[in-house]
Write a structure and sequence with these properties.
Number of helices of chain A: 6
Helix content of chain A: 40-55%
Radius of gyration of chain A: 17 Å
Shape of chain A: globular
Strand content of chain B: 15-25%
Order of helices and strands of chain A: HEHEHEHEHEH
Number of helices of chain B: 12
Distance between the termini of chain B: 37 Å
Low-confidence stretches of chain A: 15-20
Largest sheet of chain A: 5 strands, parallel
Helix content of chain B: 25-40%
Number of strands of chain B: 13
Mean pLDDT of chain A: 91
Structural class of chain A: alpha/beta
Largest interface: A-B, 30 and 44 residues
Oligomer: heterodimer
Mean pLDDT of chain B: 97
Strand content of chain A: 15-25%
Radius of gyration of chain B: 21 Å
Chain lengths: 183, 345
């Protein structure tokens, strides 16, 4: 065959580059959350704000965090812009991001978690369990294969306020592990 | 006798493309450098020019990659300027630059071709406008799908999370029936001069037919269209966008009654919407920011809520045969940029 069949993906060169790259950096873990300011990065999906607010409240009430700093992403589909990452890195000690509850926002919640880890903050992304595959794929793209995040059962958007609180309580243990347990 | 190509070689090449994960499910044309060179020769743009970027996944598409994918989609080299214009038009859509390709809604590009290029390349501009059956229409749309899959790396079940997707994804490329349209070409609404060879594109969530072939009253046709546009199932935000691909018969009936395209848009903006009670019944009466939710509040039950904010949210195209009065509501995903792209050589 005189000519090879051409590759339509354009990834051959960059895939090799990724394989030789070191893994995405992970921030040092805290031993606990006493005295910590918890950053809540809300992605505007239905119930995301009350869910993360409740996680923040529980981290204060049960784990000694001193306060929260909530910020909302303008575009849920894209990773948080650099200036927002910088602002929250300066003002917070740990980050909770979510709720990954759609095709693009689950992936970007994980990308945000990885970005905060690189900036030196332990982060816990929370995704609906229906979006594991896309969240894992994004982690791989960001050089963090096997990146761990917390999941809550799908669906989230239809939950009542009380159910949201229950879900927040259920995921709290996983969030604490992500923020404090060494890998 | 000219020998026919070796079918076993062809089959092996097709299977190779499948094993590499490049296919959308249908056989691909294996692309070789000489074939792709013919595509690249149809444009003055550099093969290295980046024509689209998807920042969140760290991928982009160059003219070269677009050419490889267009070749694999089954395009002829001379279609390539239309593929490039279609891709440029799509990259003007906010949804296509953002998370649209990854979305659970699984949107489909709708590509509209205007001007002499329709006839020069043999686009179908008459019956069966939504396809299938015509190589330029079918393969230009497919090329876009392959670019998203291969150059952007957005694959089903992985970064593409369509819940159900929609029929016709990667196959909707209409050529406007300008010859039987009573109105200026769609590309003029996108800011280009009359007679230009041009492509316009947006993303769709679905297409819904309006079959109304027995009334002589154009306003009754508009009411029928308005009912389809106003169905609650499609309303998820405060505003919506829904275009109409009118068949020539409906368009001509409206024009004969004095309706310009703008008049039709204004009529639909005025009459499309639902009462608060209708929206509440479907759990969509409340607004949190721009998102609808189920609110127990009944105070707005009697209020009629309009849903189309501007003429740009009601793009109007004329396509299809003049053999029946069947038009199509095309449900826009997000909103149309309002611009058309000239096909350049």
């Amino acid at each position: 065959m005189p000519y090879p069949i051409l590759d339509p993906t354009g990834t051959t060169a960059s895939a090799t580059a990724t394989a030789t790259k070191t893994r995405a950096p992970r921030a040092p873990r805290r031993r606990n959350l006493r005295g910590a300011t918890v950053g809540l990065l809300v992605n505007t999906k239905q119930n995301a704000a009350p869910f993360l607010d409740e996680v923040g409240r529980l981290l204060i009430a049960e784990h000694g965090a001193t306060g929260t700093m909530a910020r909302t992403k303008v575009n849920f589909a894209a990773p948080a812009p650099d200036d927002l990452v910088k602002e929250m890195t300066t003002g917070c000690d740990v980050i909770i991001t979510g709720i990954g509850d759609c095709g693009s926002c689950s992936a970007s919640a994980v990308a945000d978690g990885i970005a905060f880890e690189a900036a030196g903050l332990p982060a816990a992304a929370i995704c609906s369990d229906a979006f594991r595959v896309t969240a894992d794929a994004m982690a791989e793209l960001r050089g963090a294969p096997g990146y761990r995040y917390a999941t809550t059962p799908h669906p989230v958007a239809v939950l009542t306020p009380d159910q949201v609180k229950q879900r927040a309580a259920q995921v709290l243990g996983a969030v604490m592990k992500l923020l404090t347990e060494p890998e | 006798m000219t020998p026919t190509p070796d079918p076993e070689e062809a089959q092996a090449a097709i299977e190779y493309c499948y094993t590499r994960g490049w296919s959308d499910g249908l056989p691909l044309v294996p692309a070789s450098q000489p074939l792709v060179d013919k595509f690249l020769a149809t444009t003055s743009r550099s093969p290295d020019e980046v024509i689209g970027e998807l920042e969140q996944v760290g991928r982009n598409c160059t003219v070269y990659l677009a050419a490889v994918n267009a070749a694999m989609a089954g395009c002829l080299p001379e279609y390539f300027p239309v593929v490039l214009a279609a891709f440029d038009a799509l990259m003007r859509e906010r949804a296509a630059r953002g998370g649209g390709w990854q979305s659970t809604s699984g949107p489909a590009p709708m590509i509209v071709v205007n001007g002499p290029v329709r006839h020069e390349l043999g686009f179908n501009a008459q019956g069966g406008a939504f396809g299938p059956g015509f190589r330029p229409n079918a393969t230009v749309a497919r090329a876009i799908g392959l670019i998203v899959r291969n150059a952007f790396g957005i694959r089903p079940h992985v970064l593409e999370q369509a819940t159900q997707g929609l029929p016709g994804r990667w196959s909707i490329c209409l050529a406007e029936n300008e010859e039987e349209s009573p109105w200026p070409p769609f590309a003029e609404d996108g800011g280009l001069p009359a007679g230009a060879s041009a492509v316009t594109a947006t993303l769709l969530r679905t297409c819904e037919f309006v079959d109304n072939r027995h009334t002589p009253d154009p306003v009754q046709v508009l009411w029928d269209v308005a009912d389809t546009i106003s169905r609650t199932g499609s309303l998820i935000f405060r505003d919506t966008s829904a275009g109409v691909v009118f068949c020539p018969e409906h368009a001509q009936m409206l024009a004969a009654a004095g309706f310009t395209k703008h008049d039709v848009q204004a009529w639909l903006i005025e009459h499309c919407g639902r009462t608060g009670a209708d929206l509440r019944q479907a759990g969509k009466n409340g607004l949190r920011g721009i998102a609808r939710f189920a609110d127990a509040d009944t105070s707005q039950d009697a209020t009629f809520t309009r849903i189309l904010p501007s003429p740009r949210h009601v793009p109007i195209v004329v396509a299809g045969a003049r053999n029946a009065a069947i038009s199509m509501v095309v449900r826009v995903f997000g909103e149309w940029s309002g611009t058309a792209v000239e096909v350049s050589k």
